[in-house]
Design a protein that fits this description.
The protein is α/β, with parallel strands linked by helices and 299 residues long. It is built from eleven helices and twelve strands.
């Protein structure tokens, strides 16, 4: 087997064309250099240098080995550099995920800020529902995620990282609510569009409704179910019904008059977002750096 130190000595002798002069290049004694070259020649099965007095001349085998030895040493140095950058969290691929709200409205901003200090990294952000993100972390496809519900996965750690206000919205063009505040009893009679059963958004929203109002979507007049928050917003804009959604997701629509926020009398609804990662797998230095940055900057 070719050893790195032997190749380093071989290149030093090649460069200096002298065993004695190579000592300064690799910081070894001349007998040690001779020993390394002898061991390398024994491994290869042929001589690498011809010695004629003080003159050292590479053999044909030495000429063949030289470009490979040089490349091997260059690759070794590059590997050490890349690993050093990896350990510092300055380079590499960051594989993270987010359920719909954090994936669309929270993580992109944090990723942008993080990349300002980590320009060489590549970020792959997977946006999907809470179950898909947690499953991806379980099988190791991604390292970190932010999701809208803490699910029963014993192998995963769910750390609460953010509160999110939930608001009642309706269309500004066509809506069944004229007032700025609605009574709870009227709320049950309004046409509602909701996320599909089992989505993290629906699970957490129903949990908060039950806690604050004593009832969930089963008591509502549900006229449609949709598979994404964006579809919910478009349905509300079209006048299909009202919805309870993340305030973060409709800020621009409210600002430009496409949607209205209606207060629910005497009630404030909040949901929680969770940073999720595997219990027994060590995060890469880059993922660990992002985790620390996220927890300091998420708002």
């Amino acid at each position: 087997m070719l050893e790195i130190r032997q190749l380093q000595v071989f290149l030093a002798v090649w460069k200096k064309r002298s065993f004695s002069k190579a000592t300064q290049e690799v910081n070894l004694t001349q007998p040690t250099i001779s020993g390394h070259i002898k061991s390398l020649e024994d491994t290869i099965g042929t001589k690498l240098f011809d010695r004629s007095g003080r003159e050292i001349i590479p053999t044909k085998a030495g000429q063949i080995l030289y470009p490979y030895a040089k490349k091997i040493i260059q690759l070794q140095k590059q590997a050490q550099k890349e690993l050093s950058l990896f350990q510092k969290g300055d380079q590499g691929n960051l594989e993270i995920g987010g359920s719909n709200i954090p994936g669309q409205y929270i993580l992109p901003d944090i990723i942008g800020k993080f990349k300002k200090n980590h320009e060489k990294i590549k970020v792959n952000l997977k946006v999907s529902d809470t179950h898909t993100i947690t499953e991806a972390i379980c099988i190791g496809d991604i390292e970190l995620g932010i999701v809208g519900a803490s699910l029963n996965y014993p192998e995963l750690k769910f750390d609460k990282c953010l509160d999110d206000e939930l608001v009642l919205i309706c269309s500004n063009k066509s809506n069944p609510i004229s007032e700025e505040e609605v009574e709870i009893e009227k709320l049950k009679r309004l046409p509602f569009v909701v996320r599909e059963a089992g989505s993290g958004t629906r699970v957490s929203t129903e949990k908060q409704l039950k806690k604050a109002l004593g009832f969930s979507f089963s008591s509502f007049n549900i006229v449609a179910e949709f598979g994404s928050n964006e579809a919910i917003k478009q349905a509300v804009k079209a006048g299909i019904g009202c919805a309870i959604v993340s305030k973060r997701s409709i800020e621009d629509d409210v600002r430009f008059g496409r949607l209205r926020i209606i207060s629910i009398k005497g009630v404030k609804l909040y949901r929680e977002f969770y940073l999720v990662y595997h219990n027994s797998r060590t995060l890469s230095p880059l993922a660990e750096a992002f985790k620390e940055f996220l927890l300091k900057n998420i708002t």
